[in-house]
Structure formats: structure tokens, C-alpha cells
Write a structure and sequence with these properties.
By secondary structure, the chain is mainly beta. It has no helices and eleven strands.
């Protein structure tokens, strides 16, 4: 399984950006995909996740600003980021996870840098 992220870049405060991730390989139908981020000097943290059934979880810090969506048929997940703040600057990592016979499988993408600065 490979996760390939795209998007990211430099944006001014208040701007918008979209990052996308496609999962390649044997990914079961029942899974959770999403985004985590890691700012310099900080631990990796959850941004947003979405299950194949559409259940969504957001970090409080991004609620009402970020929107996660997915295309199950294409194993892709998107993160639309609006009203970006300098605190959103981080490397954003795509994540896919599932459980089979009580065994958890988890994969990470290579990360894409989002910089919010004027």
C-alpha cells in the first residue's frame, strides 16, 4: 500500500489550499482515511479523518475551516483548507487505517508542506 499526497505550498493568512491523497494497492473497502500534521518542534496531531461510510472527525482547531472528503471508488481523500492561519503551518501527512481480524493496519504518505505566511 502506498499513499501519494499532492497539493500544499505557500499561502497567505486567510487564504485557501487543498491537499489530496490517493491510496494505491490493496486497500480494503472498510477503512478510515485522513490527515495529520506536524509543525516544527511539535508532535504529529490529527487534523481530520473520514471513514468509508462518511463518518468524520475534526480537530477542534480546524472545525468550521477545513473540510475533509473522499472518493471511495478511487481511494482518494481530500482536505480543503480555508481561512488558513500561520498556526496551520506544518507538514501534512495522509493516513489510511483499517482493522482485519483484530489486527490494525496503518499507512502514511510522504507528507506535504503547507506554509501560511505573508
Amino acid at each position: 500500500v502506498q499513499l501519494q499526497a499532492s497539493g500544499g505550498g505557500l499561502v497567505q493568512p486567510g487564504g485557501s489550499l487543498r491537499v489530496s491523497c490517493v491510496g494505491l494497492g490493496s486497500i480494503p473497502r472498510v477503512n478510515t482515511m485522513g490527515w495529520y500534521r506536524q509543525a516544527p518542534g511539535k508532535q504529529r496531531e490529527l487534523v481530520a479523518t473520514i471513514t468509508n461510510g462518511g463518518k468524520i472527525n475534526y480537530a477542534d482547531s480546524v472545525k468550521d475551516r477545513f473540510t475533509v472528503s473522499r472518493d471511495n471508488a478511487k481511494n482518494t481523500v481530500h482536505l480543503q483548507m480555508n481561512s488558513l492561519k500561520p498556526d496551520d503551518t506544518a507538514v501534512y501527512y495522509c493516513n489510511a487505517a483499517w482493522i482485519i481480524l483484530s489486527q490494525k493496519y496503518e499507512y502514511w504518505g510522504q507528507g506535504t508542506l503547507v506554509t501560511v505566511s505573508s
